[in-house]
Amino acid sequence: MRTFMTDRTPPLLVRVLPLLIGLMMGACAGPGGTIRSTDVAPPPAQPESASGIQAKPGWSFSRHAVAAANPLATEAGAQVLRAGGSAVDAAIAVQMVLALVEPQSSGIGGGAFLLHFDGKRVQAFDGRETAPAAATPQLFLGTDGKPLPFMDAVASGRSVGVPGAVAMLALAHRQHGTLPWARLFEPAIALADRGFAVSPRLHSLLASETALKADPVAATYFYRADGTPHPVGHVLKNPELVAVLRRIAATGPAALTDGPVARAIVAKVTQHPVRPGTLALDDLQRYQPKEREALCFDHTAVARALRICGFPPPSSGAIAVGQIMGLLARTPQGTQPLAGVPGADWLHTYMEASRLAFADRAQYLGDPDFVAPPAGHWNSLLAPHYLDERAKLITPTRAPQANPGQLGGVASAWARMPEQPEYGTSHISIVDRFGNALAMTTTIEAGFGARLMVNTGEGRGGGFLLNNQLTDFSFTPTDAQGQPVANRVEPGKRPRSSMSPTLVFDKASGQLLMSAGSPGGALIIHFTAKTLLATLQGGLSPQAAIDLPNFGTLGGPVMLEEQRFDAATVQALRDRGHTVNQTAMTSGLQALQRSPSGAWLGGADPRREGVVAGD
User: Fold this and answer.
1) Residue 419 banded pLDDT, cuts 50, 70, 90
2) Helix (H), strand (E) counts: the chain
3) At what angle do helices 186-194 and 239-251 cross, to 10 degrees?
4) Using CA atoms, how far apart are residues 239 and 237, in angstroms rounded to an integer?
5) What's the predicted TM-score (pTM) here?
6) Averaged pLDDT, 148-153
7) In whole angstroms, what is the distance from residue 3 CA to residue 602 CA?
8) Residues 486, 352, 551, 585: what is their CA dihedral angle, to the nearest 10 degrees?
9) pLDDT tens string 231-246
10) Can you give the three-state secondary structure of 454-515, one letter per residue?
11) CA distance 444 to 567
12) What is the DSSP string of 189-222?
């Protein structure tokens, strides 16, 4: 392994990085970030709190590489690649270790989207959770008919969807695995058995968490008798997870749909003391992962024709990223490469493009098994003539309102979904020596999910956390006129997501150029778009692109990563009519990019614990 720093790293970035390194690991912003006295409204809650900055060097490998959110998980994936495993094999090993060492973000109690390239075609494997058969559109309405407070809904049995990650990984393994399924669980089983050192980030998140302590199993596992989290470096063992992983290794996804683990999942959900859910054994047994057609679109960067592939609905990520990039390219600012900290003109245009994209997202996107695409195909939202017309709406000042577009001259049958929070995830990018590659974004939704830890009650401590994925549905099923929201709760439906696993290709040759993605709730869209624009258009290395400050909007206030933008830029945006909030924006980007020499350049986000490993 060798570190890599491109000579195209902008001088401003080089000056900024030492300031980032100087931020102390313990200096954490709360979930809502830091609010300035000059801001009009607080920024939306972030998926996971900040836990400091750790500068990353960037990496380069010639044969294969793994980028993941925790060094232990990354190394497990690298070991599988060295043993002759495929990219999918490595992803399974990574995911199982993440379930242990990064339990706040993903695991076997959640779901995932996997975008895979086998050297010839791109496949989209959908392991998104589904609503139970007994769920209704009124799931998150209180007795007064009004939406529940968001965190009341999250930390409950109602929020738990049918887990899909393990079933989806088994489907991908049947098609693209080379090592035996059981072999891929060995790193996580060994680590859970002997224990792992609690990291600064996990400790920090546990210290700021309150709802998790209400679950007796989780409280006993994560906290000491006095209610404080285990200290950094404490060796944390998880014997219950060892037993569960051994069952999955031996019997596959059936370990979570039949038998003691399945019964424990259902009991945890249905016996919640305040807001029980309706999840049943039949829901677990009926779950089916899906293989979907990847959503791909063309993009030109520095006179090079590219083909960018992402995940289709139920994810909104690829469509929103494609719209933002396409709209920006149709403006004068689109010719300005993102090769450093962007200025006010570029940011204004980006934000207006984003507001248009998020308006379409709120209007049209949902589970395609329940929601028909506008004009008959999801790519209609990325059609050149449509983006041409939408780009004309971007003006020098902030538009009073961003409305969804009309396609085919027909008004939408759906109501616009009200804005509500979305939470966290984890991302994995892998390339193997055989020409396979993947981008996988995996989640239990909010930090620590539904705050429910499953244990079979057989005398072992620990277990695994369940997702709160159903809170990605609209709490409000209809608008005031009774028109339904596309992303409302329905039995068996997959909630809309923002996850944006992305693969980039040279259009002419078909050669894979990049794998990228991030956690971050709805801000995943912006984190991913930033990295694509900075690498493909700005010419930066993956690490330099990831290191750039974060920015975005969900349709309302502009969010800028705190301490990264000068006062003149902030004021210039306000002068254009924007409300600006400076806050912690804790992305967790991972990216691998092919260099002109053929080496794989890797980058991992300094805002989290991820690293890249390989040979």
Assistant:
1) confident
2) 17, 22
3) 160
4) 6
5) 0.91
6) 95
7) 9
8) -30
9) 999 999 999 999 999 9
10) ECCCCCCCCCEECCCHHHHCECCCECCCCCEECCECCCCCCCCECCCCEEEEECCCCCEEEE
11) 37
12) HHHHHH-EEPPHHHHHHHHH--GGGGSHHHHHHH
Bridge partners of residue 429, in order along the sequence: 67, 439
For residue 245, give every residue at least 6 positions away whose Cβ sits within 8 Å of its Cβ, in sequence order, or none.
96, 108, 185, 188, 189, 192
Structure confidence by residue, pLDDT tens digits, 281-322: 999 999 999 999 999 999 999 889 999 999 999 999 999 999
| 113 phi-psi bin (left φ>0, alpha ψ -120 to 50, beta other) | beta
Q: Which amino acid is at 148?
A: L
Query: Please, which residues bridge with residue 136 across strands?
Result: none
Four-point Cα dihedral 372, 374, 377, 379, nearest 10: -130
Q: Token digits for 56?
A: 């990353």
How many Å apart are CA 349 and CA 335, to the nearest integer? 12
**Distance (Å, whole) CA 462 – CA 452:** 11
Task: Please state, in angstroms and rounded to a whole number, the distance separating the CA atoms of residues 24 and 224.
Answer: 25
> Which two structure tokens, joined as six digits, stand for 441?
């974004």
Q: Is the pLDDT of residue 35 over 80?
A: no
- DSSP secondary structure letter of residue 448: T
pLDDT band at 39 (very low <50, low <70, confident <90, very high): very low
Angle, alpha carbons 258-103-489 (nearest 5°): 65
Is the sign of the CA dihedral 567, 573, 575, 579 positive or negative?
Answer: negative
CA distance 481 to 458: 52
Q: Which of 81-85, 411-415, 480-484 has the lowest mean pLDDT?
A: 411-415
Q: Catalytic residues, which ones?
A: 425
**Of 232, 237, 230, nearest to 192 (Cα)?**
237
Here the tokens at position 356 are: 């248009």
DSSP characters over 302-346: TTEEEEEEE--TTB-HHHHHHHHHHHHHTSGGGGS---SS--HHH
pLDDT at 13: 34
Q: Is the pLDDT of residue 16 over 50?
A: no
Rg of the Cα trace of the chain? 22
* Distance of alpha carbon 363 from alpha carbon 373, whole angstroms: 11
* Cα 111–chain centre separation: 11
Give yes or no for residue 601 having a pLDDT over 60: yes
Structure token digits, residue 197: 């050192």
C-beta of residue 448 within 8 angstroms of C-beta of residue 103: yes
pLDDT, tens digit, 9 for 90 and up, residues 468-513: 999 999 999 999 999 999 999 999 999 999 999 999 999 999 999 9
Judged by DSSP in three states, 614 sits in strand
